[in-house]
Design goal:
By secondary structure, this protein is mainly beta. It has a single domain, classed as Electron Transport, Fmn-binding Protein, Chain A (Pnp Oxidase, Chain A, Roll). It is about 10% helix and about 35% strand. The strands form three sheets. The chain has a seven-stranded antiparallel beta sheet. Strands 6-7 form a two-stranded antiparallel ribbon. Strands 10-11 form a two-stranded antiparallel ribbon. Bound molecules: flavin mononucleotide. The site of flavin mononucleotide (FMN) has 22 residues, from β2, β4 and α1.
């Protein structure tokens, strides 16, 4: 099948359209950020790339912290709105009826409507061009207990997380594998002895 070369661009899909909270518990702001990812496991590290023109840019610098909140697909309209309006003019948290709670390790608060919140402390800032990359250590992860299975393990399938694919908000689909399943030995099919 023929392939085309597109103009070089920031095309990576899917990405998480996150709700990033910044500022303080008393004066918080929220903006939508899709340019984010994990860059290290130990220590757990992430980044967000934010244009210097965003109201949040200065707030993140002031406290050296932010929280990456992962929204559900039911929150798509809120995610879009927080990416259209600026905290310089509107109180987006009030507008979207978003409740906050104090984070454990950083000044910026968490959003209680989001099933997962990553508390982040900025370690480095890099001007890349259009965006500033805030590199940060993840200092705490808070999850809604409804995302836990009966044995207390994290089961994010339950969360109904939102995805962003080239300008469109999508729900996640069906499971088609899990980490290492391609090389995992199959369990023997011998019938188990009935222990009754
Ligand atoms: C889906 C989506 C993803 C976005 N991703 C980013 C991003 O990664 N970085 C950024 O600087 N702005 C991003 N924006 C734009 C900001 O969220 C938007 O300019 C917002 O109004 C800034 O809010 P603030 O001025 O209160 O900080 C995104 C917007 C949308 C709708």
């Amino acid at each position: 099948m023929a392939r085309l070369d597109l103009k070089a661009g920031a095309l990576l899909s899917p990405v998480p359209p996150t709700l990033v909270t910044c500022g303080t518990a008393e004066h918080p702001n929220v903006l939508t950020v899709a340019w984010t990812g994990i860059v290290c496991t130990r220590p757990p590290m992430t980044y967000i790339s934010v244009r210097p023109t965003r109201h949040s840019h200065a707030l993140i610098r002031e406290t050296g912290s932010f929280v990456i909140n992962l929204p559900t697909s039911e929150m798509a309209r809120i995610v879009d709105l927080c990416g259209m309006k600026t905290g310089a003019k509107d109180d987006k948290l009030a507008l979207c009826k978003l409740k906050t709670a104090p984070a454990k390790t950083v000044e910026a608060p968490i959003l209680t409507a989001c099933p997962v919140s990553l508390e982040c402390r900025v370690t480095e800032e890099k001007d890349l061009g259009s965006h500033t990359m805030f590199l940060a250590e993840i200092t705490n992860v808070s999850v809604d207990e409804r995302c836990l299975d009966p044995r207390g393990r994290l089961d994010l399938k339950k969360a109904g997380l939102l995805a962003y694919v080239h300008g469109e908000y999508l729900t996640l689909g069906k499971k088609c594998g899990d980490f290492g399943f391609s090389v995992r030995k199959k369990r023997s099919r011998k019938p188990r002895k009935d222990k009754r």
